[in-house]
## 1
Amino acid sequence: MGVDNRPGQKHSSIENLVIIGSGPAGYTAAIYSSRANLNPLLVTGFDKGGIPGGQLMTTTFVENFPGFPNGIKGPELMDRMKAQAIRWGTKLIEDDADAIDLKERPFLIKINGEIIKTNSLIIATGARANRLNLPKEEKFWSHGISACAICDGSTPQFRNERLAVVGGGDSACEEAVYLTKYSSEIHLLVRSNTLRASAPMATRVKANPKITIHWETELIGIYGNDWLEELQIRSKDSNQIENLSVKGLFYAIGHTPNTEIIAGQLDTDSHGYLLTNSGRPETSIEGVYAAGDVCDSEWKQGITASSSGCKAALAAERWLNANNLIILNEQLSEIPKEVSTQTDTKISSEANYNSKAVWQKGSYALRKLYHESSKPLLVIYTSNNCGPCYVLKPQIKRVLKELNGEAQGVEIDIETDQDIAKQANITGTPSVQLFQQKKLKAQWKGVKQRNEFKQAIEKLL
Ligand SMILES: Cc1cc2nc3c(=O)[nH]c(=O)nc-3n(C[C@H](O)[C@H](O)[C@H](O)COP(=O)(O)OP(=O)(O)OC[C@H]3O[C@@H](n4cnc5c(N)ncnc54)[C@H](O)[C@@H]3O)c2cc1C
């Protein structure tokens, strides 16, 4: 897909460096290049190929990223990287890049109808979870099927139920072990006769009495009414077909690199991973660099993504310098002020409830506002380890702030307030419901653009 460069399109001035992607690779490239005074522009992504913050937004604790001896939650790590990049002057566009044109210089990037020009480019678009594309997969997606145990595992529909995980690598094993916290029984469906996970992880799975491994087994059918009820599995060895009653199915079957926006323009391997010179970030076009999982079919870790983001930023800076292409930002004369990352809202109780507050948390505030407030009320249902919730919460707070108190918001943690989540029929997090005078006016599941919420509220004002 090319970029539409016809007259009439809006053109900004030329950027030194645009970084596409906000995972560890993108944010590390942003930190290095902003400290080098390149004034980089980072396109965070929205729903193409993952979520802002990347894959670590979907995990609980990252125990192997150096510098955090006690581990750190994935979303918190990404929040910190983001804050560090912003602190040093990175500009963010919170949207997807729709198309990239590398045929001319400066390169062109199309974002939501607008064209951005840049002298150099870092592609750090990562990789996304694969699907099986089975019949009825779409029907039961979010109605029993999920690709993120960490995000959805704690929802009431999955608690104390029999669940299945499909896959045999690290992600599948991690998801299976994680789900044992909530479910009575996990069935791990493995296509081959071995687990591709790391040895310690495979041992943990095999030793877990709640996990049954079905070796050499293929998932062939998904059944149910409104919600997933049954899987059909086939033994590859005997061809025998078996039905397995489950209330949840979690996909963990690998990833596809997000290279569609530059399809056919850069050299890739047969699986679509961007090709670079060994151990280096240069792609097949000068001035274009690749970093992270999008060019790494082998290591795929937070730290390797960060490391390649660092190399890509340094290489871009050297190349811009060598070609006299850098437009210098006003020199940074002072160390930027320290920044803070997201903090948790206290749960409202009779003692601290405020009927006028724009944002509160917990069932007490929800009940009071639901029954007593005439303003539109946005309820966001979250769970502790849900990465997309970290993405959505600040967006919703921004909408409420922009509306100057004309609407209010309440956050409900579905683990703390299970009854409320059940009553509201919440099937995954994040979910958002918009009420006015006890009537449900709209609802959304997953991360949506800020404007969708704003427009829905404005219709009620
Ligand atoms: C469940 C799970 C657990 C993991 N646990 C660990 C762990 O404990 N330790 C560890 O080191 N690694 C772990 N990993 C691996 C690690 O998350 C990845 O290796 C790492 O996130 C890759 O970083 P990245 O920046 O290359 O890409 P990603 O993290 O995939 O980020 C890609 C970014 O690109 C954006 N994007 C995609 N398309 C576009 C577009 N068209 N326009 C704009 N933006 C776009 C996406 O929104 C996203 O922000 C885990 C992965 C998973 C799935």
## 2
Amino acid sequence: MIKLKSLFVGLILAAGILSCENLDDGSYVDGETILLNKATKGNGINIVMLGDGYIWSDLETGGLYIGTMRKCMDAFFSIEPVKSFKEYFNVYTVICESRNTFVSENSATYFNLTVGQDGLPVFDLDKCIRSVGKAVGDGFTDTVILLIGNEEYFRPATSYFGDRDSNAVCSICLQSEAIARVVLHESVGHGIGRLADEYVEFDEEIPQSLIDYYNHEYEQFGFRGNIDFSSDPSTVRWAHFMDNPDYPEVGIFEGAARYRSGIWRSEQHSIMTDGDAMYFNARCRELIYKRIKELAGEEYSIEEFLRYDKKNLAGTRLWN
Ligand SMILES: [Zn+2]
């Protein structure tokens, strides 16, 4: 269904500027690229982590910048289905030195991260793309970027850019107590799985124009496969789980993608809802797994997924 261009052209270009961690007791320097995890299987799925609002004193080896990036990487791989596939990922961080620690409208930081009029974060995307290019080469595709703000007062978000069939994605994650949850929701859920939110924010029916747009994006590119606009169990996008006795928690639950009605999700809880569930539900796991396989250049089959997923069944029924 999804035709992906596997253009990981940057790896070779980047090879000359990679540094190894902790070879000396000094500090990292602005622009330096550090490889935190190297893929040993598949094409290598690129993750690039950048920090905003980190000043010179945060850049020591073992300091706040590298510590935060490591924490985010550990969070990214902390649960299934990414936990079992760490060897498919290249994880980089590029050192970005800001002049200020405070991320806000009137404070010049490296990416000028701040809150837009709609309450969502805005930042200098061109500068972000140039920084990511230092790690994976210019013209990159299929890359997940984590921009980590040294601040926690505004709302995390994820946006896609570039061609829809080989898009890059940038998640804004903020340094906070809840950063593990934010990284999983934004960068694994929206980023790798291209999942929709499963929570309700507006007490109203989803507009038809949005349904048309989401249907188009699902049919063309596989976006937001964890939601549907039909409650018919025989045709819903996760119908293959409905009569499987291994998945009694899978059903058809109204409310998702911020709307109360006219849209359905597959389970009561997931990390894509705003509850406390620290797991991806079955349909979300399937979509993330499928995307990892596609990006890695490997074949996907539902049978193989179901075999892999047996180990996840017990741990994802905390709410049942
Ligand atoms: Zn979300």
